[in-house]
Amino acid sequence: MTDDAIIYTHTDEAPALATASFLPIIQAYAGQAGIAFETRDISLGGRILSAFPQKLTPEQQVGDALAELGGLATLPEANIIKLPNISASIPQLKGAIAELQQQGYDIPDFPDEPSTLEEKDVRARYDRIKGSAVNPVLREGNSDRRAPLAVKNYAKKHPHRNKPFAEGSKTRVATMGHDDFKSNERSWVAAHDDVLTFRHTAEDGTVTVLKEGLKVLPREIIDATFLSAKALDAFLDETLESAKADDVLYSVHLKATMMKVSDPIIFGHVVKAFFKDVFEQYGEQLAAAGLSANDGLGSILTGLANVTGGDDIAAAFDRAIAEGPRLSYVNSDKGTTNLHVPSDVIVDASMPALVRNGGKLWGKDGGEADTLAVIPDSSYASVYQAVIDDVIANGPLDPATIGTVPNVGLMAQAAEEYGSHDKTFEIEAPGTVQVLDSEGTVLIEHTVGAGDIWRATQTKHIPVMDWVKLAVNRARASGVPAVFWLDANRSHDAQIIAKVHQGLATLDTKGLTITILAPEEATRYTLARGCATGSTRSRSPATCCATTSRISSRSSRWAPAPRCSRSFRCSRAADCSRPVPGAPRPSTCSSWSRRTTSAGTRWASSSRWPLRSSTMPTARATRRPACSRRLSTPRPGRSSRRTAPRGVPSARSTTAAATSTSACTGRRSWRSRPRMPISRRPSRRSRPRSPRRRRRSSPSSTRCRGSLSRSVATTDRTMPSSRRSCARRKR
Prior knowledge:
single chain, alpha/beta, 5-stranded mixed sheet, 4-stranded mixed sheet, 26 strands
């Protein structure tokens, strides 16, 4: 990479179409400044070829661009543009391998059950490619996600329609609530550098080392948990019976791309539960043919063409679909069910789609119906149920008026589940799994059963401190409350909360509203901010207080997408000052002060009223007529030729603001509020001169001409009347 170069990554499918149109544009603009663009291939095909250079001819060999970029990402001078890439499931990976083989690349098949050393080596190489393999390598820093203003404005101008939930809707979320990853989580914080080992001890005394040589740093958090396979199967049986009894669609929502080891296993349990009779009858035959439920129904049906009696097995699957609960379909025209491919239904995309469609998904006939959304692990299932409850109670969200929820995510240096791939295991025999330090001391221990899914994660101290700092900076820059989505009842979150308090103590948080809430409570808090006054369901900017910054760790993946939350900036004090249920008490001030942020300028009063969180774009240098008849009404038969510029109150609204109190808050008028202290006022040089004006017997006869004055746009209230002058030239 040259010194003045930006690296642009080639990825897969639709992003390649974006590259064809977007890359030439930015190359043309950057070229004028002497900045060059270099490209690197991190597509799925490119990563597969780079893993097997010994199998390819010199002309076919491809460098490992992902490893190169992973090293560059640690350097401050690196500039990398990464477009979305495929997080390949095993079926997608196998399809890419077959396509490359057809093009003449001599790469090995994907071994489902490796037995020899060579097969195990091949499987290890493919395991590094499947799932979310790119993001953990390139994301050396934490994420700061927010909707660009242009994109948000376009969405408001061209809104899609969110459908209301029907009265008596049966749509709901089903989750385990016990014996899952959330309930079994345990944490440990390292006091010094150490090397850890994960060990499984079976009931018969057989010891298996799951992982060894895991280095940890001081103050690093290590978490371990497991999901019980027995409890999962019982839960799935209950949900299938419930869906059939309620006559709703059955749909499972996982994250099989990001959680590329654990969630495909869970998906396999769902497939086996739905087609229980088929697997009881043909399970051994399917396993002998290398057809796994973890790969989904689509992979099995495709592989039946090479299995003896495959037609009979396919017919058995068809009967199970017809006789079981109604199954939701990804594509009813093509016959693609919710259980065809584990990566087809990703929870953070599929659940918002369900909410936007009035709680309905699509069945075999293409028709819409209420749905039982099955999210086995209860870590963040309550987030979606909270959104569903809110929309049912209050109606759908209006994209033309809803706000956005900026998100700061903890993911640097493979934090939390981003680094769990090589620490996740399916337990083969009942026994115990222990986390041991270098001296053999047991740090964490779980009693597990056969088929249980055990996994561990690690979160380093420095990324957490950087995450907290980034959250505070984002809250200050945007002028809105910051909410850390952390559950004090979870072992891992409790450790993170302690670090959050430690980080906040070293930062300037004066004037900021910072709150720590469990994901479900944080969801309700965010939703409540959009309808605090309860006057309208359209989420008009006049009916809320401010945006809420969602500062989340693991919940950054599972929390509602910004389009499913509502929170706004507003400019009407009368309608935006009602307290939000459960919201933290706003900050107060003791004197007039002007606060200028990147979002605008605002004034705070001196009588302990809460500061407004909302802002408007500043217009400090706006020049306007000194008097546009804002303090008078036109004489009969005549209209004012000059009108107040945008952001300046009209005569009627100014008079009302000066002589009445807010019906919503009961606040005093501007005339009765204390004036700004002299020390806080602008200097004489910065204030415009106001010529003497001749007294008139009636304000209605006042004529103001010619003079210009300077104004400062405020956010949620007009300036005090004593600071508004009506200047005119001396006749």
